Amino acid sequence: MKRIVFTVFTVLVFNGVALAVNLPENKINKKIFIDKDKECAAEQEAARRECLANGCSEWEAFYFGAAAWGNCMGI
């Protein structure tokens, strides 16, 4: 029983340390992603409107905008 409790405690401690080490990096990456997402959302909307102005249907415009967003995000 002591061995199981010690193992569980050890795993929890190591997980806590691993999360604490990676926390600042994750905050920075999330901020960069949010800024990039806003920029790409504007490109998506511009591409969608352009497609609609050229006679595309709503679905075609949606997929055209989604492709523009994916290209902007580097997917």
Structural summary, described in words:
The protein has 75 residues and is mainly alpha-helical. It is 91% helix and 0% strand. The protein has helices at 2-53, 58-73. The radius of gyration is 22 Å and the shape is elongated. It starts with a helix and ends with a helix.
Instruction: Bin the helical content.
Output: over 70%
Total count of helical runs of at least 4 residues? 2
Broad shape: elongated
E-strand count:
0
Helix/strand structural class: mainly alpha
The portion of residues forming beta strands comes to: under 5%
Low-confidence stretches: none
What is the first-to-last residue Cα distance? 49 Å
Average pLDDT score: 75
Rg calculated over all Cα atoms: 22 Å
The helix-strand sequence is HH
The profile of the biggest β sheet is:
none
